Amino acid sequence: MLLKIIPSMSVDPLKGDAQSCQSKSEEDIPKSSPFDFVIKQFQGKKSPGKRKEQPSAIQKFFSGFGKSEGKERQETEETEINNCKADDQSEKEDLTVEDESSQLISEAESPSGEQRFNQFMQKLGKEPNSKNLDLNNCALSAADVAELASLLPFLPELEEISLSWNGCVGGTLRTLTTQLHHVNLLKVLRLNNCRLSAEDVTSLGEAFEIVPQLEELDLSWNSNIGGKLSLLTKKLRKGCKIKLLKMTDCNLTAKDGESLAETLTVLPNLEVLDLSINKHIGCSMKVIAQDLKNVPGLKELNLHMCGLKQDGLQSLDTALQHLTALRKLDISCNKEIGGGFKDATAHLASLKNLQVLDLHQCCVTEEDMAALSQVIPLLSSLQELNLSWNKNIGVSSDPLLGRLRFLPKLKSVAISNCGLGEDSFSSLAEAALHLPELEILDLSWNKCVGGNLKLLLGALKLATEIRVLRLSSCNLVAEDLALLTLLSRDSHLTRLRKLDLSYNNNVSDEGWMFFCQGLALFKELSELDVSLRPSSCRACGTWFSELLAALTKLPALAEVGMQRWVLSESQHKQLEGFNQDNKRNVRFDC
């Protein structure tokens, strides 16, 4: 009797085997076979990598029952092969699903761009801000700059980048500038003291086209820019939106000045131009002045310590007729312009919007004083005037100081080291009676003030807004300090924040004692300097205890200058315990 066994098979809906199986008679297929389970186990263990399988042991056993079973055996082998293919396909699909799941898990675990930015800022001890990137003085490395560049694509709203005082930025700037197209809303770029190289300047120039909204560019204290400014300026195009351009102490040359002059024609929106501390730029001031007419909206012009000469001053005066919007003019520390004001003030008087005029250390002559005395009182909007370190102001017979009464908006007057005499000081004191908005008064290094501070009594009573009073090296005496104390007791000088009484060695211990006893009345005082001259020293008297007692009642006081006062051992102990005992952080400069 022949036993026919048909192994159970997995039916693949994509194959035609299922249809052929259904065509067989149900009588030819046993309902159950004791070997079906064994065969299925062997089929389930097939390696997915194999395509051709040898018959199983059970199949070999039944193959010996005769030739008549060849057809069935062939069908069985074909079924096994089809089952193997189906298993392979199923395993491939399982692997694909596993790979996709792994990828999704990996992406979920990877930090987002925002998370990376936050981590970067936290590493540098800075608060994340997607609009204002402040990394000044963070000791950035080249790797930090590269990482920052990779983060710019995630900061599309960025408007300000400040990387100042990071020396390692120099030589790596191209890494950053090539990514600036991701932050095309950028308005402010500050790169002070970054040791920029010629390559950096070139890359920055190339980036101008991809930051069309840039309004402020500060490259100050990068000395390597000197002689290479054209690499930057030649890339600027007409319609540039830059409003502020600062290049303080960049070692600019006369040639750089010429390049800058050409650039002014494409900077119609320029409002602030700072070329201070570039000693050679003065040689090209004639050329620069001629093109200042192209920036009629200029509000601030800083030429401090630029090596200006008398001819440059005259060219500048001619240009002022086109700068009617000018609010701040600084030509200080240009000693060689002394004597040139007599021929260079014709257009200064036309600056009706000028609020700040700085002429300190310009070696003005008596002839200059005569010209300035006619012009300065006409600057009706003037709020800050600095004439310090011009010794001829004090000895001139021209009444410039007396005419300050015509400038009622003055808030700051600096006349330090001007060689004031008793007459000129009296003129100033009288004019000060008409300056009710005065906030800053600097009379330092004028010896005539000592013993004559009472001349200012009326002005100091009226100056209810005065916040800074500098009387350093004025030869003050005890009477002068007593006057200040009496003013405070009468509720004057109540808003005073900074008081400089340094280098007044003639004040007696009694004078310091009286002053310290009334010091607590200066409620808003934050800085006090009572230091002695560098060439002297003196034992600190008993007034020191009164000083410490007053400080406990002055919560805003943060700094006390006491250089060259010699403290006793007990006074040292008092000083050491003061901050701890009173939970304060007052800095004593002893």
Automatic annotation (TrEMBL):
Protein name: Leucine rich repeat containing 31
Biased composition (Basic and acidic residues): 85-95
Domain of life: Eukaryota
Ranges where the record places region Disordered: 1-112
Recorded name of the encoding gene: LRRC31
InterPro entries according to UniProt: Leu-rich_rpt, LRC31, LRR_dom_sf
UniProt-listed Gene3D superfamilies: Ribonuclease Inhibitor
Species, as recorded: Coturnix japonica (Japanese quail)
